[in-house]
Amino acid sequence: MPTKDLDLLLREGALQPPKGFFERRPPNSKPFLKNFDEYLKLYKQSIDDPEKFFSQMAIENLSWSKKFDYGRLPTNEKIFNKETCDAAAWFVGGELNACYNCVDRHALLNPNKPAIIYEADEPNEGYILTFGELLKKICQVSQILKQLGVKKGDTVAVYLPMIPEAIITLMAIVRIGAIHSVIFAGFSSASLRDRIIDANSKIVITSDESKRGGKIIETKKIVDEALKQCPAVTNVLVFKRTGNSHIPWTKGRDLWWHEEINKYIPYIPPTAVSSEDPLFLLYTSGSTGKPKGVQHNTAGYLLGALLTTKYVFDVHPDDILFTAGDVGWITGHSYVVYGPLLNGATTVVFEGTPAYPNYSRYWEIVDKYKVTQFYVAPTALRLLKRAGSKYVENYDLSSLRTLGSVGEPIAPEVWEWYNEFVGRNNAHICDTYWQTETGSHIIAPLAGITPTKAGSASFPFFGIDPVIVDPVSGEELIGNDVEGVLCVRNPWPSMARSIWNDYNRFLDTYLKPFRGYYFTGDGAARDKDGFYWILGRVDDVVNVSGHRLSTAEIESALIEHHLVAESAVVGFPDELTGSAVAAFVALKDKSLYSDDDNANDIKKQLIVTVRKEIGPFAAPKMILLVNDLPKTRSGKIMRRIMRKILAGEEDQLGDVSTLSNPDVVQHLIDVVKSN
Ligand code: WTA
Predict the structure, then answer these.
(1) Which part of the chain is the AMP-binding enzyme C-terminal domain (predicted)?
(2) For range 528-545, the mean pLDDT
């Protein structure tokens, strides 16, 4: 928490929220908070009595079909229990429906209000869907799913591009109490297969093809490839996106969306579920090769997505939020789908890329629809900054009040560019720190309220008590000006509840490494004024262009190639993508790569292997063929040594004499230098 008052923070160089911020919000809407002092007051309440604070928020902001009996259980333990490590359950005894909260209640009030602005890959091919139209389509798709046998508690796999049907699908699933499991459409058939099997999904929803950046992706073909090894899948519902005729089709199993949807009436009532019933699974990468199905439950997640959209981005019902993220990742879940709709605002669904047909695409969209909140990952901003400010200058961006950043630290020069060229020094930059597992922002400035420093995510959101822990002793580091690993002391409503079918792995990954805390996996510092600075992952996770990748998962993919004996994958800094992936690979037959042509050919094959096993976005930027990998005497690969060599810090390798093969170090240095 800030230890100084606002005036002092501002005098010492923190940036003031833009002047006139509140005057520019939609007419007839009141500010949610008056000022920073009110944030401090509410924050204190949320930590002192989280049950009371969030109960009140849940009653005021969500619609319940049955009111809850307890704000949270266990009631008397405000922090994680050091013995059991269990997370809390929220709003126990309550019943509600997620789709009702996102769509019905707004459709009832204002059916003609735009819910979705669809901006297709080709400019001018999009359209607007109102809350009334959205509700009708959702109800029809819900009936298709029911007809196919989907029941409350079943999982449905979704492999769709960024089109309105992605939102319709998610809402149709949760309307009948089922659980969605979205698989990012950049994943390969092998990854899709593993996730369908792990979640035991029997129905898959996809499209014939996808369009992105002017390119066609053969989506259904990838699904069919995956389904060769998913005997449990009974049906595939296919949305016709391009209508190209040559897509594979299995009669009896595959159904066209447009043929099915018209068979059904425009309304069915939503199914109420319990607060703690699962809402969705989202697979994410961790320290081991096996992806984790992060499980979010209904009421707590909804409240987190709703409140952060409202307070962090200052979203009022008449605002138009453009989150340039994919629904295949958590950012798309919380800030393309749930957050905006729960607040009754309009959300932009953008199918394309920032560079197609040219680097002005985002700004053209902002100008065209008068977007009020824009949210993107720094990797896209780096690309656009490099392309040049001429692509942004000629657009009217004066509608923008909030500019969000997510997924990786935003370097001060990129922050300044965002502020100056996009925000025109008149929008509030909100660097939001959070994770798939946290469900919604946990450290972020509140737009219009919180002073900021370029590169810091500033202060915790309501109900989050961040702790910086010494990674060696596990002791909390008290006070300001400290650096360590970032943990959270107390459970909060939108934190993940489990890893699908593997609660013990959930405890082992997040709640047991530092008993009594939730462990984020990130390093962080709290500066002299109490601002938080995220320093990056301390585990084997690499952030490439805002995509979270597990080095272990890439290693498991490489080993699938018949020539590979073993590999070690590490991240290294990259100007454009934040981090990039380097793979050190030792082949079974070392004579194979003695000549350069042969070595290049093998490297290409290895890249194809990763693309096939995981997806194109995971392909290593650099492959280094080596004789051996540095190992401890117990056989553990020392990835730290490879990181240091890649960073050109071979003078900081420390004592390598304890390695079982110390000679390998010079060999690695030579290979990196000659690459
Ligand atoms: C990183 C994305 C610095 C962090 C929402 C985290 C960030 C991981 C920020 C989660 C930020 C996210 N500044 N780093 N503002 N936001 N990260 O699950 O390492 O895809 O642990 O969720 O992204 O990635 P995930």
Answers:
(1) 553-636
(2) 90
Token couple for 219: 């989506």
Task: Please check whether residue 568 is in contact with residue 591, taking contact to mean a CB–CB distance below 8 angstroms.
Answer: no
Q: How many CB atoms lie within 10 A of CB 109?
A: 11
Domain of residue 179: give its range: 136-272
Percent of the chain predicted with pLDDT > 70: 98
The DSSP 8-state label assigned to residue 82 in this structure reads T
Measured in angstroms, how far is the CA atom of residue 307 from the centroid of ligand 1?
19
383: helix, strand or coil: helix
The confidence score (pLDDT) of residue 651 equals: 87
Q: Which ipTM score applies to this complex?
A: 0.99
Report pLDDT for 81: 86
Largest CA distance in the chain: 74
Mutate which of 434, 440, 579 for ligand 1? The one with the most ligand atoms within 8 Å of its CB, which is 434
Q: If you average pLDDT over residues 522-544, what whole number do you get? A: 92
Which sign, positive or negative, has the C-alpha torsion 206, 157, 328, 549?
Answer: negative
Q: What 3-state class would DSSP assign to 377?
A: coil
> Among 75-84, 296-305, 527-536, which is the least confidently predicted range?
75-84
Reply yes or no on whether the pLDDT at 238 is more than 70: yes
CB 94 within 8 A of CB 67: yes
Q: Are 264 and 287 in the same domain?
A: no
**Domain holding 409: CATH number?**
3.40.50.12780
Give residue ranges with CB within 6 A of ligand 1: 284, 329-331, 406-409, 431-436, 457, 520-522, 534, 536-537, 543, 548
**Domain assignment of residue 106, yes or no:** no
Question: Is the separation of the CB atoms in 495 and 86 below 8 Å?
Answer: no
| Ligand 1 atom 12, closest CA | 407
Tell if the pTM clears 0.90, that is, is over it. yes
Dihedral sign from CA coordinates of 279, 306, 101, 129: negative
Q: Is 143 helix (H, G, I), strand (E, B) or coil?
A: helix
Q: Residue 210 half-sphere exposure, CB side, CA atoms within 13 Å?
A: 25
Helical H segments across 12-122, by residue range? 36-48, 50-61, 98-99, 105-109
Domain boundary residue, one of 491, 514, 537: 537
In angstroms, rounded to a whole number, what is the distance separating the alpha carbons of residues 154 and 147? 14
- The alpha carbon of 204 and the centre of ligand 1 are apart by a number of angstroms equal to 28
Chain mean pLDDT for the chain:
94
- Joined tokens for residue 606: 């290895």
Following DSSP, what letter does each residue of 191-249 receive, concatenated? HHHHHHHHHT--EEEEES-EEETTEEE-HHHHHHHHHTT-TT--EEEEE-SS--S----
Q: What is the pLDDT of residues 428-456, one digit of tens each?
A: 999 999 999 999 999 999 999 999 999 99
**Same-domain status, 92 and 147:** no
d(CA 115, CA 343): 11
Residues in the chain: 675
352 and 478 part of one domain: yes
For 648, residues 6+ apart whose C-beta sits below 8 A from its C-beta are none
Compute the distance between CA of residue 283 and CA of residue 260 in angstroms, rounded to an integer.
29
Q: Confidence class of residue 11 from pLDDT cuts 50, 70 and 90?
A: low
Backbone torsions φ then ψ of 317, nearest 5 degrees: -55, -30
489 and 79 Cβ atoms separated by less than 8 Å? yes
